[in-house]
Every structure is written in C-alpha cells, then in structure tokens.
Write a structure and sequence with these properties.
This protein is mainly alpha-helical and 388 residues long. The chain has a single domain, classed as MFS general substrate transporter like domains (Growth Hormone, Chain: A), CATH 1.20.1250.20. It contains 17 helices and no strands. The protein starts with a helix and ends with a helix.
Length: 388
C-alpha cells in the first residue's frame, strides 16, 4: 500500500504542475489578464513551493510520511476548488500561493519514499525514474481531462472534477503502513549540507531542470495556441484550444515513456551525470527547433522535449539519494528549494518577454539553461558517480 501512496503522491504533483498550463487558455480570458500576469501566477505558485519545500523536507523526517502525504492530498484539493471558483486575478493568486504547500507535501512524501520502497532501495535513480512515470501520468491526464470537460460543462465544474480526483488517494494514505524515518535534521543542518559537492551540484542542476520543466508545463499550451492560430487561421477557437491542450498531453506521454525506459537502465545511478548531460544537449536542440518551426511540428517537438526531459529530475534525485540516504527528506527539501528558484524566475521572465513579442521567441531563453544543465550534469557525474 505504501508503494501505491508514493506513486499517487507524484501523480498528484504532476496535476499540480500542469493545472495552470492546462487551464491557461480559459483562465486568462476569465481573469482578463495577459501573459505577464499569468506568469506572475506561476511565480506565486513556485515561490510558495520553494518555501514549502524547505519545511516539508524537515517535517517528513520529523513526523513521517503518513501525515505529510495526507496533508498534501487535502490541501491540494482545497486549492484547486478555490481556483475553480475564483473570478478575479486577486482571487486566483491566493490558491496559487497555497497550492505550493500541498504540492510540496506530495512531492516530498512521494519522492523520498519512492527510492526506499521500489527496487528494495538498491537502485535509487532507477526507482525514482520508475516512480516518476506517475508524475508524467498526472501531467498527461490533467490537460486531456480539462480539454474534454471544457467542451462538456462549465469552467467551475470542470476544475472541481480535478479537485475530487486529487482528494481520493487520502483514503489509501490513511490506511497504509510506511517505513520509519530517522531522527530529522533542522533546516539549518540541511542547509549546511550544501557545502557537500554532490548536494550543491544537484541543487544547481535542479535549478536548471525545474526552469525547463515549469516553463514547458505552463507555457506549452499558450505557445501551441499561438503557433496554431498563426499557421492555421481557419480553425475555430475551441478546436485551437483543444489542440493546444493536447500538446501538453503529448509532452507528458513522452515523459512517461522516457522515465519508464530509464528505470530499466541498471547503471543509471552510477552514470547518472552522463545520462542527464546527453538529455540536456538534445533538449537544447529541440527548444532551438521550437523557436524556428510552425504548427505542423509542434506535437513532435513537444513529445521530443518530454522524452529527453524525462530522466533528468529523477536521476539527479537518485544520484543525490545514493550519497545521502539518511535524512533524505531534509536533503531533498533543500535541493528542490534551490531548484524552485528556476521555477520562480524563468516562467515569469518568459511571460514578460512575450509581451510585445511572441512566446515562441521567448522560449529561446531556455537554450542557455540547457547548456548550463549539461555542464552541471557532467560535474555531478564526477562528484556523484561511484565510478570516480
């Protein structure tokens, strides 16, 4: 049962990270906001995630997985309900801020439990890749379901369905028996670990990766709408919206496939840095292509991005876990918090650059981030691989 809860936690996290992007084509007109304001909503969510990541990591090591997971399901559901019925920008900011606490509770419970309960704890990077297939599933189902429900019912009822879905797993969390946790660090103890090379490099690599993933999760749908509307002006608005939302589903399906394949690589923990570096190189080339091509290539490029993004996060987490398996909740909270600075800064910057320009052109900002992640991944391979 604890395995199911761990997987459902990262599934819920996938829903959290895709919900704003999934509803963006309806949310922006509803709130009467532009790309810059929408970028501010993303930053509000990511900033709270940053704070909550620090807290939830230490809390998990102090009180265990069950209460953190249960809180995550309840808090996330409540915030999505609030987002469903908010009709002004100010009413949307509040649930976006609070959603960070629910998301990080699910994130910490799921991603620190997965390396322990899968593969008997013997291959944390492979376990993290396999477990985070369910993150991709949450990322996939959310835009697909939203696209369907928006055509069948009201905005409020459509979003409420998502809130109900993310609440159901609390039933499993309450009856599951979880592994015990070691006596936890304080936040100060965990921050002190940043002087450890593998922790510092992993944190910086996650800064780059979360910059990329959060930008795609939140801007892929508006980007797709932009290029489809430009290249296929004869399509009805509802058709364009649905096609755009499906791009995020294509991204998520490819991410699931990539993580499933990565989970079968026996030496991925040992040589994780090399795998992440290769993925970063190809991801940069894909983003370069997105800046130059039209609607006909959008789906293929979205899928390519998802596939090559796939192993980066779970492999970085797995390599770090292999070096600091004790009190990993605290360690994970720290490296993820540093990583979330990317989610706070970069999607908002893309929104600002898009005003007076295009989202397509603004995505070029992600290319140097891919280059930085490539370099950091190679360093991680040196300081984190057991072969060094």
């Amino acid at each position: 049962m604890e395995k199911l809860v761990a997987l459902l936690c990262v599934f819920g996290l996938g829903m959290c990270f895709s919900i704003l992007g999934s509803i963006s084509v309806k949310l922006m007109p509803r709130l009467k906001i532009d790309q810059g304001k929408f970028g501010s909503l993303i930053s509000a969510f990511m900033f709270t995630c940053l704070i909550a990541s620090l807290i939830m990591g230490v809390v998990t090591d102090k009180i265990g997985y069950k209460p953190v997971a249960a809180f995550g399901f309840v808090a996330t559901s409540a915030c999505i309900f609030m987002l469903a019925y908010g009709k002004t920008y100010q009413m949307a900011v509040i649930p976006c801020l609070l959603l960070g606490f629910g998301a990080m509770a699910l994130n910490t419970a799921g991603n620190t439990l997965i390396p322990v309960v899968l593969f008997e704890g013997k291959n944390p990077a492979a376990a993290s890749n396999l477990g985070n297939v369910f993150f991709g599933l949450g990322l996939f189902i959310t835009p697909l379901l939203v696209s369907f429900l928006f055509r069948k019912t009201t905005y409020e009822k459509a979003i409420s369905v998502l809130a109900i879905i993310v609440l159901v797993p609390i039933l499993f969390a309450l009856i599951a028996k979880f592994p015990s946790v070691a006596a936890g660090f304080t936040i100060g103890d965990a921050i002190a670990l940043l002087k450890e090379p593998v922790v510092l490099v992993a944190a910086l690599a996650l800064f780059c990766y979360i910059s990329l993933e959060s930008s795609f999760c939140n801007w892929l749908v508006p980007y797709s709408k932009e290029v489809i509307s430009r290249d296929l002006p004869g399509l009805e608005g509802s058709v364009v919206d649905a096609a755009s939302q499906q791009m995020l589903s294509a991204f998520a399906i490819a991410m699931m496939a990539g993580r499933l394949i990565s989970s079968q690589i026996g030496n991925i923990t040992e040589y994780g840095g090399m795998y992440v570096a290769g993925a970063a190189l190809i991801a940069g080339l894909v983003i370069l292509g997105m800046g130059k091509t039209g609607a006909i290539w959008s789906s293929a490029l979205a899928a390519c991005a998802g596939f090559f993004f796939a192993p980066c996060f779970p492999t970085i987490v797995g390599v770090t876990n292999s070096k600091h398996p004790e009190n990993f909740g605290s360690v994970f909270g720290i490296i993820f918090a540093v990583g979330l600075f990317g989610g706070v800064l970069i999607p908002k910057t893309i929104g600002n650059l898009s005003k007076g320009s295009t989202i397509q052109k603004s995505l070029k900002l992600l290319i140097p981030i891919c280059a930085a992640m490539l370099i950091l991944a190679l360093i991680l391979g040196r300081v984190g691989g057991s072969s060094t």
